[in-house]
Amino acid sequence: MPIARVSLVAGCLLGGIAVAAGAFGAHGLQTTLAATGRADNWETACRYGMDHALALVATGLLAARSRSPATLLATTTACFAAGITIFCGGLAALALSGWKPLGAIVPIGGVLLIAGWALLTTAASRIR
User: Fold this and answer.
1) Does the N-terminal or the C-terminal CB of the chain have fewer CB atoms within 10 Å?
2) Between the CA of residue 96 and those of 20, 59, 79, 86, 122, what are the distances in Å?
């Protein structure tokens, strides 16, 4: 499957998940998150999930329209997808469980998100 399609489909799916998670947090988990004081964790997970889902869509559009090396854009896609999963998933799990060791895993996702942006910058700079 071409990397453009993978990036676009992943971005669209993860964007939808971010909206659903945000709505669930605001309506279904509002009392729980307020009682534990972890609503900020949930909100950050949803916001970063949406922001980076859009970055995946941008990566897919760039892949469809440019001659950047497919391996560069494939690595960008992998960094964003893994970063969203680890960072946002870890924060959401921390918000629900309060299990502190998750706080040590979340930064790994953050580093992957930063790497994704660096790779996307490199690919964008190669546009003619």
Assistant:
1) C
2) 16, 31, 25, 15, 37
Contact 57, 7 (CB under 8 A): yes
- Spatial distance between the Cα atoms of 17 and 36, rounded to a whole number of angstroms: 23
First CA to last CA distance, the chain: 25
pLDDT for 62 equals 94
- Give how far Cα 44 sits from Cα of 33, 96, 110, 117, 124, Å: 13, 13, 12, 18, 27
pLDDT tens across 100-117, in order? Answer: 998 899 999 999 999 999
Backbone region of residue 37 per phi and psi (left: phi > 0; alpha: psi in -120 to 50; beta: other values): left
